[in-house]
C-alpha cells in the first residue's frame, strides 16, 4: 500500500509517498523562505496563496520521481493541524479533492506527531517506550511515548517556545530570517563563557521550560553593548546557544530519570542545531543510553513525516469523515492510540 502525504502547516509545502513495505520512496519540498525573508517572518496570507500555487505541481513531481500515477495511491494524508489556518486549508482542500476524485480514504495527521515520529524514517529506529523532546518555533514539549498515539505530556514551555527564542535572539543580532541557521553559524565563531546567560527553571523540580527570561537577558546584553555590538555578536550567539542547549539537557535528563528510560528522541526544527545535538548526544552517552535524531532535512516541516504517520493511521482505520477539517490548535493528548 502507498500513502501520499501533504504538509502545508506554515511556510513549507511538502509532498511525499510512503510505501508500507519499502518505506519512504519519494519526497519533494518547496520552501517559502525567500518570499518571507523580505518581511522578517512568515506572512500567513502569502503562505496560504503560495501553498495553493505549489501543491499540485509538487504532487505530480513526487509521483514522477518514482514513475507512479495517482491510481497507484491508496490513501491521501494531510496535515490537519496545528498550524496557520489558511495554510492548513490549502493542503487539506487538495487532499480532500484528490481523495474524493480517486475514491480513496483521506487521513488527517497531527503535525507534531509527524515531527515526533520523524526519526522512525531512519534505518535505525528507536524502540518504544521513549522520551521525546519536540523543539520547534511554536512548541517545546517533553513527552513520554508508550507507542504511536499514546503520549503523556511531561513538560512544556510556560512562555516562549525554543524556536521563538532563537528567532528573537537572531533578530536582536541583526540576523535575517530565518534566524536559526544564521545564529548557529555565528555562534561557531563565538567564545564560550564570555556571556553567561541564565539557564531558566533548572532548579524547578518539574520538566517545564521558560525562555522569556533568556530572551530578555540577550536583549539586555545587546543594549549594554550597543556601541560595540559587532565585536561581541558571536560571543552573544554562543552564550545564548550554550544556555539553551544546557537547559534542554538538564530537563531531558530529569524527564528520563522520572520515566526510568534511557532512550531519547529529539525532533522539530530546532533539533537541527549542532550544539543542541552534541549536548544531548553527550547526555545519552553519559547515561549509557541512546539518542535518536531526525535527519536534518526532516527536522523542519516536510511531507515525509506526514506520509509516514498517515500510513500508520490509515492501517489502523483512523480515517477522515470526508469533510475538510483543520485545527489551528490541537493537543497531542486527544489522539487515539494505535
TrEMBL record:
It is an enzyme of class 2 (transferase). Its cofactor is Fe(2+). Substrate binds at residues 134-138, 167, 180, 184, 273. Its main location: cytoplasm. GO terms for cellular component: cytoplasm. One of its GO terms (molecular function) is tRNA N(6)-L-threonylcarbamoyladenine synthase activity. InterPro entries: ATPase_NBD, Gcp-like_dom, KAE1/TsaD, TsaD. Keywords: Acyltransferase, Cytoplasm, Iron, Metal-binding, Transferase, tRNA processing. Binds 1 Fe(2+) ion per subunit. One of its GO terms (biological process) is tRNA threonylcarbamoyladenosine modification. Its EC number is 2.3.1.234. Fe cation binds at residues 111, 115, 301. It catalyses: L-threonylcarbamoyladenylate + adenosine(37) in tRNA = N(6)-L-threonylcarbamoyladenosine(37) in tRNA + AMP + H(+). The keyword Cytoplasm applies. It is found in: Cytoplasm. Residues 24-307 form the Gcp-like domain. Required for the formation of a threonylcarbamoyl group on adenosine at position 37 (t(6)A37) in tRNAs that read codons beginning with adenine. Is involved in the transfer of the threonylcarbamoyl moiety of threonylcarbamoyl-AMP (TC-AMP) to the N6 group of A37, together with TsaE and TsaB. TsaD likely plays a direct catalytic role in this reaction. Belongs to the KAE1 / TsaD family. This is tRNA N6-adenosine threonylcarbamoyltransferase.
